[in-house]
Design goal:
There is one protein chain. The chain is built from 10 helices and 22 strands. It has an 8-stranded mixed beta sheet. The protein has a 4-stranded mixed beta sheet with strand order 17-18-19-21, covered by helices on one side. It has a 3-stranded antiparallel beta sheet with strand order 3-2-7, with no helix packed on it. It has 478 residues and is of the alpha+beta class. It is globular. Helices cover 31% and strands 25% of the residues. A hairpin with a 4-residue loop joins strand 4 and strand 5.
């Protein structure tokens, strides 16, 4: 009797264990998302970069933010952080990732952090005659990490979807071939084949030197009750700004406008809108051949462009398929790239120009003088630099990240050959390594190729970068 009772008990335990495992197997997977912001507005008096001459913050037109989105599929967590800044060096992002990872457990390789490229923000990276503000850099790293922590705190069940809109009228290639005989002498004393920002209705205009990407890819997150949680858009437009003070430029205006259009104001937790900079290294919104027929003040133009893009995204939202769960994954690789350093002749020429300059740093005025200083500084750069490349998977959507001002041709190639049906690239991500033209554009010359802190990677950098990114995408597709 005792043995029979023991056998019955054992059988009962087995049946219970099987039943519990079946319940666990049938338990639905839960997808969670959280979003939050941190204020990263500098104090007045801080250096402002984005121009050849340094500026100082004397007024705040609109606040700057670090905008964070954290996603969780139950096994993997990712975070995307878009920051209202012109350029953010890798050292700042690395520290922000260290702090955020320690607080949330999200691996640094799963944290994608980028700058929007507003030209009205504090100098966290040295550029031309603006020097990095080290006090602000320390503040910025902490606040970026705070945004991730706050978004992580807001994690809640959510649905995810992605879609696309098209806004072709706000993107124009800013590099132009000029009529034969047009002299295009650069600051190094040699001749270019193309000109950046050639002047509206210039009679010497011949044709644009490259294409545009009119697509606005976007990622939408909604709570299970249908309430909008966050929306991240990506558009290949360099920037639109000039508010006359510290400003997030059109990137911040988009975040404000999309919230308004979605009627997502005054929510708890708050809705967060994002605009990430796509592959806009050779793109702006000036119709060079036709001229700007809409003469608006900078702030009004900034808002009109933001409204135009936000309106098209809002129109595209109703047809987006929302998913209760998608798999998340990340892949990252660090590669070494060569630096274009000046030779002895170029360095001697630069030193001679600076010796004869009527003004000295930080008041150099002529382009020859400014680039002579850049040449002297580039002589002290290392021969090679380490660059982080990253790819994220969100279901059937892929996001690639490059720490440069990426030319549109590169972004179009990444979309065309992508193994995922939907994709986009975020520029100025995880560091700052200057412009990324194609080798063909290096041959043409022009501002974006001129050797400086703003453009120094080897001429063959872009094929190496895309090859690595396609390899990372292949890993994520498996």
């Amino acid at each position: 009797m005792k043995l029979s009772a023991f056998r019955c008990f054992a059988l009962l335990c087995v049946l219970c264990a099987f039943a519990l495992s079946s319940v666990a197997a049938d338990k639905p997977r839960v997808f969670r998302a959280g979003a939050a912001t941190s204020n990263i507005t500098p104090k007045l008096g801080t250096s402002i970069n984005g121009n050849m001459a340094d500026g100082k913050a004397t007024h705040v037109h609109d606040e700057l933010h670090s905008r964070a989105l954290v996603l969780d599929d139950g096994a993997t967590k990712l975070a995307i952080v878009i920051n209202d800044s012109c350029l953010i060096p890798r050292e700042v992002f690395d520290e922000a990732k260290r702090l955020a990872s320690a607080a949330t457990g999200i691996p640094a390789s799963h944290l994608l952090m980028s700058a929007t490229h507003t030209h009205s923000a504090a100098s966290s990276a040295s550029a031309f005659q603006s020097e990095a503000d080290m006090e602000y850099r320390a503040f910025l790293a902490g606040r970026i990490a705070d945004a991730v922590r706050r978004a992580h705190n807001n994690l809640a069940p959510a649905r995810i979807g992605w879609g696309r809109a098209s806004v072709p009228d706000q993107v124009h290639n800013r590099r132009w071939h000029m009529q034969p005989g047009t002299k295009l002498i650069n600051p190094f004393g040699t001749e270019d084949q193309v000109k950046m920002n050639p002047g509206m209705k210039n009679p010497a205009l011949l044709k644009p030197a490259g294409p545009t990407d009119p697509e606005v890819m976007f990622l939408t997150l909604q709570r299970t009750n249908g309430q909008h949680l966050a929306l991240l858009a990506n558009y290949s437009l360099h920037y639109v700004g000039g508010a006359g003070g510290v400003s997030a430029d059109y990137f911040g205006a988009f975040a404000d406008r999309i919230q308004e259009l979605l009627r997502a104001d005054r929510q708890d937790p708050p809705f967060v809108g994002f605009m990430a900079n796509g592959t806009s290294g050779d793109i702006n919104n000036i119709p060079w051949r036709d001229g700007d027929t809409n003469k608006y003040a900078p702030v009004e133009k900034m808002r009109k462009v933001a409204d135009r893009v936000a309106t098209e995204v809002a129109k595209a939202l109703p047809v987006v398929k929302l998913h209760d769960w998608v798999p998340l994954a990340a892949a990252q690789k660090e590669i070494s790239l060569g630096v274009r350093k000046p030779d002895d002749a170029a360095l001697a020429r630069a030193k001679d120009i600076l010796a004869k300059a009527p003004n000295q740093f930080p008041r150099l005025k002529g382009m020859d003088e400014i680039y002579a200083r850049e040449t002297v500084q580039m002589a002290d750069y290392p021969d090679r630099v380490e660059v982080i490349l990253q790819a994220l998977r969100l279901g059937d959507l892929a996001i690639t990240a490059i720490p440069c001002e990426v030319f549109v041709e590169i972004g179009l190639e990444l979309k065309a050959r992508n193994p995922f049906p939907a994709s986009f690239t975020i520029s100025l991500a995880n560091g700052y390594n200057g412009y990324l033209p194609t080798p063909q554009h290096h041959t043409l010359g022009g501002y974006e190729t001129w050797r400086a802190k703003s453009s120094y990677l080897e001429a063959n950098a872009s094929p190496q970068i895309t090859a690595v990114l396609f390899d990372l995408l292949g890993q994520l597709k498996k």
